[in-house]
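Record minuted for everyone:
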Amino acid sequence: MKMKQPQNNVPRNIIITALGVTVLLGVFRLILFLVLVWVVALAFIIIYQYKLSKSTGANFVCLECATIHQQTNCPKCGSKLKKLYTRNSGYGI
């Protein structure tokens, strides 16, 4: 039996929140604020991903499903086949 490990869903949660705010602002036709919400959301996601990659240790890419992770087993498919992943290696995603 595979143990499910929690995945990091901060970017997904930011996008869901931005969509909700977009609908709300769209109802009142506040287009300037609507654009501002998406600029802030995308900036937050970019900064979050940049800080996450700097603060974490070694990343691995699963050779079965190309998921980048830090666990010994892939959190998506459970495979143990992996390769060390670096941003400048040009491998994977």
